[in-house]
Amino acid sequence: MPSEQLRCAVRIRRGDLVHVQGEWHEVCAVRLERYATGGTAVVLTFAGGGRPLRVPADHLVTVPLPKPPRPPGWVFVEDASDSPAVHETECTTCGEGPEPTVSQDVAVRHLWCAEHAARTGHTGFLALRVGLLRAVAVHEVRH
């Protein structure tokens, strides 16, 4: 398995895979025991038989990284129900900009940029459109 992590033995549970002596083994049972000298041991029993593994409870055991959850089928749609998108413009040199607006009129924002460039000599601007998205499960999407 290419992606691995270390986990404390006391956190190993039934069904986990652990790497022991170059091989991956599925844990079918876990129990705690006391060492005669004191301290706690974790005893791992593996599916398919074989000899149980007894390790100190704080021993680090190699396990595979969990797979990221697979998202159910989602699509993202623009949510215009509550508020329209907001447009922001800002000078990349000084950070100055006009008030954010919901206006879709690009010419108004370009006019502000031209006036600012003429006044300051600054020529770089950042234009942002900030809108809301809504996640919709694929089975809810209407065609």
Commentary on this structure:
There is one protein chain. The chain has 143 residues and is mostly beta strands. It is 10% helix and 41% strand. It contains 1 helix and 10 strands, in the order ββββββββαββ. The strands form 4 sheets. It has a 4-stranded antiparallel sheet with strand order 2-3-4-5, with no helix packed on it. It has a two-stranded antiparallel ribbon with strand order 1-6. A two-stranded antiparallel ribbon has the order 7-10. The model has no long low-confidence stretch (mean pLDDT 86).
Characteristics:
143 residues; four-stranded antiparallel beta sheet; two-stranded antiparallel sheet; 10 strands; 10% helix; 41% strand; elongated
